Amino acid sequence: MAAQGRGSAARGNAAAVAALVLLCVLLHGEVAESAVYTVGDRGGWGFNTASWPRGKRFRAGDVLVFRYSPKAHNVVPVSAVGYNSCAAPRGVRALTSGNDRVTLKRGVNYFICSVPGHCQAGMKVAVTAA
User: Fold this and answer.
1) Which residues contact 104 (CB under 8 A, 6 or more apart)?
2) What is the DSSP letter of 58?
3) Sheet containing 63-67: which strands, arranged edge to edge?
4) What is the C-alpha separation between 65 and 47, in angstroms, rounded?
5) Where does residue 109 rank: exposed (0-12), middle (13-18), buried (19+ CB within 10 A)?
6) Under a CB-based contact definition with an 8 Å cutoff, are residues 111 and 103 in contact?
7) Where does the record place the Phytocyanin domain (predicted)?
8) What pairing do the DSSP bridges indicate for beta strands 63-67 and 36-38?
9) What is the three-class DSSP state of 26?
10) Cα–Cα distance between 67 and 75 in angstroms, integer?
11) % residues pLDDT > 90 (the chain)
12) 79: three-class secondary structure by DSSP
């Protein structure tokens, strides 16, 4: 009978080890999830957001949320040239919901507001994702 008790204890230990391994896998999976950032933090997408990324570490797959008044602004993903010149290429589709979600690609991701004068007044942001 003592042998059966040891077998039960061994099964219990194996179950505990399996549960611990599963917990470690689940916790590691959570760390690998993409992060979600609201551009401009509480102030949202607006003027002078170019410095907003400073001090933050972004990864490819992270999500940027652009919150703004859709009656006043928009969001346009652009190239470095479009960012520097504050010009959206012809045919590019502006995001206009006021609560836009954009998944970052590896490298530098550029965004501007294409409402006349807004980008020139600082409504643009460049985010580098590792």
Assistant:
1) 58, 59, 60, 61, 62, 63, 64, 127, 129
2) B
3) 36-38, 63-67, 99-103
4) 16
5) buried
6) no
7) 35-130
8) parallel
9) helix
10) 10
11) 74
12) coil
Cα dist. 126→8, 25, 61, 104 in Å? Answer: 59, 34, 16, 11
The pair of three-digit structure tokens given for residue 83, joined into one six-digit string: 């960012």
Six-digit token pair at 23? 């917990």
Pick from 121, 29, 35: which is nearest to 73 by CA?
121
The rounded distance, in Å, linking the Cα atoms of 18 and 35 is 29
DSSP 53: T
Q: How many CA atoms lie within 13 A of 113 on its CB side?
A: 29
For domain 36-129, which CATH number applies: 2.60.40.1760, 2.60.120.10, 2.60.40.420, 2.30.22.10?
2.60.40.420
Side chain identity at 99, as an amino acid letter?
N
Q: What is the pLDDT of residues 2-61, one digit of tens each?
A: 555 555 555 667 766 666 555 555 555 444 589 999 999 999 999 989 999 999 999 999
The model's pTM: 0.75
